[in-house]
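Predict the assembly for these two chains.
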Amino acid sequence: MLDMKFIRENADFVKKAITKKKTVVDIDKMLALDSKRRDIIHNVEDLKKQRNQASANIAKKKKANESADSVIAEMKKVGEQISNLDGELRDLDQQIKDIATWIPNLPHESVQEGGEDDMVIVREWGEIPEPTFKVLPHWEIGEKLGILDLEAATKISGSGFYLLRGLGARLQRALVSYMLDTHAADGFEEITAPYIVTEDSMFGTGQLPKMEDDMYKTTEDGMYLIPTAEVSITNIMKKEILDGKDLPIKMVGYSPCFRREAGAAGKDTRGMIRVHQFDKVEMVKVVHPDTSYEELEKLVAQAEKILQGLKIPYRVGTLATGDLSFAAAKCYDIELWASGVGKYLEISSVSNFESFQTRRMNCRFRNDEKKVQFPHTLNGSGVALARLIPAILENYQNEDGTVTIPEVLVPYMGGIEKIG
RNA sequence: GGAGAGGUGGCAGAGUGGUCGAAUGCGCACGCUUGGAAAGCGUGUAUACUCACAAGGUAUCCAGGGUUCGAAUCCCUGCCUCUCCGCCA
């Protein structure tokens, strides 16, 4: 959500920024409604002032045993006018909200204009290996080793699901522990939060209304399955007034993520790259507005730390304006090299939402001057398992068809150093 | 799921139709007092909208409707919390 006052005062800037984000919203209509709304507020508040004064008057007269009938009759009329205007106001508020909730966050000035193909790579880490043998894609090596059973998953849930078994399942558990431990050691509070949330929470982080089609929704209660732990964890702060001294707040949580992938039919259908349910460790920060871009850099580094620990080559890029998600002002994607499929896989997305989410959630903090202010929120995958496991199965694959366990995971695997 | 009770400011807790944004206490901040502290005394202590600012105004006692000239107070609906019963991991 953007600040209405800001939109009012910077209409052209906002319109341009929205276009950069490849979104269409009728700002002019909203501004017209807004000005009408303010006119009515003036009007109705004036009437309410009259009513309040008359009310006091009536009370006084009654106490003195005087007749207040004429004032009461008059106020009856005023009361009607007030309720009419209040009705109009409610209507306008709804119309304004209907538009406002579709306005995306504005891209940060440092973000390049463009679309999907305009990502700017800011750094690369590690050497892309040049294997001397034919590396099998993860779905082949996984099936061969009996640790990935896509057929069973399909039988159970249809297409777009995976099933890990044996050391595959254990590998995932090891990764989750490794990641949570790493982040916790760096000051992130570990969170286990609900995976099913209210519409209100989905709105708070900006998934709704725009991404409605990509969400799983329960029919009886109108609840949503989270597409990322970001939703649950960030909404911890919903409707709170935080103490400025507590910022930055750093949290991390593991969760399954549920995505309908409504618009992605046919893309990456093999293996576990694009699925309806996957697991992810997610980091969330709530920070002072002045520091959010420094915090963004730190958060990217935190995600990279996981990959460096696993010794898997990756690159980091900034998304162009048109590729940014609805709520993001700036976003880094981290892509991991997977030598079996022979390409980079997006494994982490680290974003600064500025005050977009906190406005929606009405989360504020008290600053040094004791004033309330919206903090900034950030989040980043730290990282997604359904992309990380394929990368491990491919990058750590040996010629004899075994897969070496990355060194940092061996303790988490109970000392097992190799699968197969 | 059934029965009951309840939701008031940072917290506790008054307030059952009239001048209530709301007594009182605690907490917190500042000042006085003190060698310093405690105690004591005094002052202050919400959020949002409207507004160029200030002043002023308006709204907010879980949320949404309703009754009324007027609602924290009465009525309806929803949400949440607690207690008991049932069910259950």
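Residues 4-100 of chain A form a domain with the Helix Hairpins fold (CATH 1.10.287.40). The radius of gyration of chain A is 27 Å.
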